[in-house]
Amino acid sequence: DPTLMVADLTKAYNHGKPNEVRVLQGASLTVKRGEVVALVAPSGAGKSTLLHIAGLLDTADSGTVAIEGTDMTRLSDRRRTAVRRATVGFIYQFHHLLPEFTALENIVLPQLANGAATKPAEERAMTLLDRVGIAPRAGHRPAALSGGEQQRVAFCRALANEPSLLLADEPTGNLDPDTSDKVFDALMSLVRDTGLAAVIATHNLELAARMDRQVRLHAGVVEDL
Ligand code: ADP
Ligand code: ADP
């Protein structure tokens, strides 16, 4: 089974009102294990909506979402939340790290919430920080880190619970071009090391070209580029 299969998704906001917007109108996308797909679309095209539905943060009006062959649309909200926590990692344009906690703690906390013991959770956090080249920054709070370092910590946090699917919404969109390239390299090597399936939304066509496959979201459907 593919890691992610979404099929014929439709989603509208403000149903039946004059300001109704039909964002998804039959969107389908399949991502295999180890495959990294670039999702390219202008702002407002529905990328966040698609990623939130694929990542079980939101539900579609119709269509299917299957993760590793299991139809998520048939599960209860509670089950779906449990599957999301165990299976899906999210990265946003802004890091959303907890400001009162250190880099290490920000990566440890989701593991504790998922039932891990402290010692192995700290070891895993250090391994991840080391892989993205910022192990020496483990004890710093987000405010003491550069923008690129903050985003690297957010990548580690997203991978803390060993998800099989990574969904990233403009993961380097908030960084200057030089930093963006370096941080993107760090993300790609992390993704390649772990062999997970990923959908990475970006406006940057050079970054998109480095992924396995490029798709675009246009008029509510996903098309190969
Ligand atoms: P993108 O991530 O590509 O910028 P979004 O999925 O955030 O696109 O939004 C797609 C469209 O849906 C936009 O026109 C946006 O204004 C609208 N939209 C998104 N979320 C909501 C919401 N909760 N209520 C109403 N409209 C929304
Ligand atoms: P964007 O700016 O790309 O649309 P946001 O960070 O504003 O994304 O998050 C969009 C929605 O997803 C919000 O409703 C937020 O509460 C929810 N959200 C963000 N991160 C997580 C997370 N790690 N787990 C669960 N929900 C999240």
Automatic annotation (TrEMBL):
Record-linked CDD domains: ABC_MJ0796_LolCDE_FtsE
Domain ABC transporter: 4-225
Pfam families named among the record's database cross-references: ABC_tran
Top-level taxon of the source organism: Bacteria
TM spans (from-to): none
Keywords for this protein: ATP-binding, Nucleotide-binding, Transport
SMART domains reported for this sequence: AAA
InterPro entries: AAA+_ATPase, ABC_transporter-like_ATP-bd, ABC_transporter-like_CS, ABC_transpr_LolD-like, MacB-like_ATP-bd, P-loop_NTPase
GO molecular function: ATP binding
Family: Belongs to the ABC transporter superfamily.
Protein name: ABC transporter ATP-binding protein
